[in-house]
Design brief:
Blueprint: H1 2-21, H2 25-48, H3 57-75, H4 85-101, H5 106-125, H6 127-131, E1 132-135, E2 138-141, H7 144-167, E3 171-173, E4 177-181, H8 182-205, H9 215-243, H10 258-262, H11 265-281
Antiparallel strand pairs: 1-2, 3-4
Helix pairs in contact: 1-2, 2-3, 2-5, 3-4, 3-5, 4-5, 5-11, 7-8, 7-9, 7-11, 8-9, 9-11
């Protein structure tokens, strides 16, 4: 009972922080820069616990946070593309440094260092691609598209849990996540698409549908988030099984670590960006 209360309180504060931060661009940027840094730090700490791996946690974390700020500044029109040069120099340094450090397995060091950027820093940085867009000569901030990605993920988790508990018989991926079922995943996906259509209706009613997405396109966005969010969850489960751990950390009472909370979004955010860009090219 005590653990349930702790989980509930943490979840309420977590959702409130995510929702309110999107109401202002500055709040979104600051919060997710912090999230990026904490997640990269957590990831590099976990891989460093493996015997033959030595990743520079501090430089990797600073590089990830810098890349997030650089993407936010570039997409909001504050800075030019030259802002990425220090980040590229840092990546080169992390590669070249292995020549002089004489580590046991430099290939693993390179792989995990770059994975921290590709798997964590890049997806979070793509939130600014969803949040900022050009309208003529101006760049505007829109909160409902990036926020909808998280709302869809939360609804999918809830729908999948309920449908899986009531109807689940066929395991989705028993080797990695025995608790997930096809019935739960399908139920969660249907619920998300229904909510996505509701989001379309509300954005139309209040003239907030800046991307001019149709109801079907909103439903498609919801389905994209569900599919890739599920894969993101499974990938993090595989990561933890490989390391032999139950939770990625304990920073969030009752919910584990940062990777445990944001695992689904690490694939869902890039997938949403690709989906929306694909719509503009059709």
């Amino acid at each position: 009972m005590k653990n349930f209360i702790v989980r509930t309180i943490t979840a309420v504060f977590f959702v409130a922080a995510i929702v309110t931060c999107f109401l202002r661009a500055e709040a979104m940027i600051l919060l997710f820069a912090l999230v990026t840094g904490l997640t990269v730090w957590e990831f590099t700490g976990l891989v460093n616990d493996r015997g033959s791996v030595t990743v520079n946690r501090m430089i990797s974390t600073v590089a990830g946070v810098y890349f997030f700020f650089a993407m936010a500044g570039y997409n909001s029109g504050i800075v030019s593309a030259g802002v990425f040069i220090p980040y590229l120099i840092t990546l080169i340094y992390l590669m070249v440094a292995e020549l002089y450090l004489k580590q046991e397995d430099p290939v693993h060091d390179w792989a995990y260092t770059m994975l921290s950027q590709l798997y964590i820093a890049l997806p979070f940085s793509l939130l600014s691609v969803l949040a900022f867009r050009s309208v003529g000569s101006d760049i505007i901030y829109t909160w409902h598209v990036p926020l909808s990605v998280f709302v869809f993920l939360w609804i999918n988790d809830t729908g999948a849990y309920i449908c899986g508990s009531l109807l689940g018989k066929h395991k989705l991926f028993p080797r990695i996540s025995p608790g997930k079922s096809w019935e739960g995943s399908i139920g969660g996906g249907i619920l998300v698409m229904a909510v996505a259509v509701l989001v379309w209706y509300l954005t139309e009613q209040y003239n907030m549908n800046d991307l001019q997405l149709s109801a079907i396109q909103w439903a498609g966005l919801g389905l994209t988030v569900v599919i890739f969010g599920t894969w993101g969850d499974l990938i993090e489960s595989l990561f933890k099984r490989t390391l032999g751990i139950k939770d990625s950390g304990n920073i969030l009472p009752g919910h584990g670590g940062m990777l445990d909370r944001f695992d689904s979004s690490l694939l869902a955010i890039p997938a949403a960006v690709v989906y929306l860009y694909t719509l503009t090219m059709i």
